[in-house]
Design goal:
A: 6 helices; 46% helix; elongated; B: Glutaredoxin; Rossmann fold; five-stranded mixed beta sheet; four-stranded mixed beta sheet; 24 helices; 19 strands; binds flavin mononucleotide; binds iron/sulfur cluster
Amino acid sequence: MTKIKSLADLKKMKSDLQSKIALREKSDTPEGRTLIKVAMATCGIASGSKQVMDFLVEELDKRNVDAIVTQTGCMGYCYAEPTIEVTVPGKDPVVFGYVDTKKADDIIEKYIKNGELLEGIIPVNYETIEKNK
Amino acid sequence: MAKYKMHMLVCGGTGCRASASDMLYENLKKEVQDNNLEDDVQVVTTGCFGFCEKGPIVKVIPDNTFYVSVEPDDAKDIVAEHAIKGRSVKRLLYTDPAKKEQIPDSKHMGFYKKQIRIALRNCGLIDPENIEEYLAADGYEALGKVLAEMKPEEAIQEVIDSGLRGRGGGGFPTGIKWQIASKVDGAQKYVVCNADEGDPGAFMDRSILEGDPHSVLESMAINGYCIGATKGLIYIRAEYPLAIKRLKIAIKQAREFGLLGKDILGSGFDFDVEIRYGAGAFVCGEETALIHSMEGDRGEPTFKPPFPAQSGYLGMPTNVNNVESYANIPVIFNKGAKWFASIGTEKSKGTKVFALAGKINNVGLIEVPMGITLREVIYEIGGGIKDGKKFKAVQTGGPSGGCLTEKHLDTPIDFDNLIAAGSMMGSGGMIVMDEDDCMVSVAKFYLDFTVEESCGKCSPCRVGNKRLYEQLELITQGKAKKEDLDKLRNLSNVIRDTSLCGLGQTSPNPVLSTMDNFHEEYLAHVTDKQCPSGVCKDLIRYEVIAENCVGCTACARNCPVNCISGERKQVHEIDQALCIKCGACLEKCKFNAIAVI
Ligand SMILES: Cc1cc2nc3c(=O)[nH]c(=O)nc-3n(C[C@H](O)[C@H](O)[C@H](O)COP(=O)(O)O)c2cc1C
Ligand code: SF4
Ligand code: SF4
Ligand code: SF4
């Protein structure tokens, strides 16, 4: 290990290391952040929700979107898998169906960043999702 | 580097490790590997989450799912259900004892709602054996800033402005202490971290060292820069092996990264830290005794002045601070003295860590803002009194402190209010008592501890406390008279006023405060020869209530001295002359036919 030689070095090192615990720090203060739940039950995984999750985690970070991605059990929309639920601060949760990476890209750019409504929203009752958690 | 989507934080504090949390960690790692999830799920050992009542704890990030009482075998389910299928493992969730409902995540737990974590900020968040995680959590940035941008006087002023007061018991303003030490000249000055922590039931400092050792090292270096010391010593009891192990790892890593040693961060400032071991004597936590113990002499206190700042370790100017005091320092520099001073009461700023114990639902480690009330601590964070019993008192300040009662429940807790209420902050032990606790016995328990731990150097403490203990014993045996209570008080005052060190000066506090707050209970012991809580063995009898007894023989079969007689289906009888008052019969009788009188 080479020694850290200055405050500037220390700060650089910190920004390189920050991603190690960023997830933990974010989850400690979920208020004010966009929450995304990806359905990862058998039906979801079979239809590609794992790839969608990987894509979201990777891209949200790259594009500096302050969001927390968690996985959840089956949301009960197996016909429309992969499904994801997006809660932008101050708005009601919205569930999107048939999400692939392209759709996920749209969701980030249009819905999360600009608040535009998109196709593919499944009408939802929030209660059922909490219960299926 | 893989980007983990899920972190599983496993508590690696002493408490949880005693329940095999290290094996649980290994199992989780293995399950993650077996399922090819190494790139997605990170398993991390962290410091204490504080919820020791229900350990071992596993917290899953990002959803904050909080699993309690997790066993090594549960690793399979956690990975299969939570990591793969995204469903929480319901049977491992925490159930709120009052509402009887399962709590999905830590954000919904009453235990955490009123807590503010400053000293414990990294406990349960980072891996204490990995300096990179500390660096990621703003680690050593305060030191870097102080060295590069502040003069020692400016840094000291920041600590003064924060209003931080020593967390080791006395509550002396930390910044002022540094200022005094900075003005004394000496060939070699020292910074000492007091990690002796010997109060019964206290484990605040140990948990900080186990969960976040670097924060203490960083602060000691800042302290060194401020007062002009290049050497730091940590005095810790040898019976804290896990804390010692993690400190050693932290010191080694900090040296490798150039954060301890010569020319730290290119500033020209040298500072290094060594560990010194104590043998576990309570009095060695007193700063002069601690210094003598480190010098290889007997761990006995000496008269102050001279204070350590004037003549401390090897006769040199020495600054002694407590572990928790140090753990606050980096945050004061990172967030500013103003931010720190915005928390707490007028004269007590910031937070205090308490070890909550006794007859309370949520036993554990908590950090709360100064000024919180006992009611909030006991009923909201602590989840109320165990088994729905009635609250009676809270002991704070350990063997130097006193009891607070019902009438103090809404008093804001800070240094000065606790003293005004006849107790003290102490290092942060908080033992909750219910209606079944006898306050004379509680006082006797602490005196027993004091008598054991008195170093014997001065007679008021050595002889006086022994006499005090004997007096209390006579009261619990029903052999004391009402006049003896006055003697007890006089003796207490003499010990308090004439002892050499803090141990003797505060040792009568448990007696005085229980006499003040529970006078009736003392009177019952000396005049009626009764123990209202049914604790003092010499003052109680176990008797069979004839109309309830169905003659099931359970009591007789379980009595260890065979002093219960009676035929099957006949009323039983206890031979009082032989009964040793063990309580076994009371516990076994299913018909409410045994009573304590
Ligand atoms: C009998 C006795 C025991 C003490 N034990 C401790 C201890 O275990 N840890 C501690 O930090 N301070 C202890 N102290 C207080 C120390 O003497 C000293 O005031 C303290 O370490 C200063 O640090 P602070 O200003 O940061 O609180 C004890 C004092 C007395 C009289
Ligand atoms: S008060 Fe007690 S512990 Fe302190 S010096 Fe005297 S005998 Fe020793
Ligand atoms: S256990 Fe209770 S009911 Fe049974 S014999 Fe003893 S006192 Fe009577
Ligand atoms: S209290 Fe113990 S010794 Fe006494 S009668 Fe009951 S079981 Fe026997």
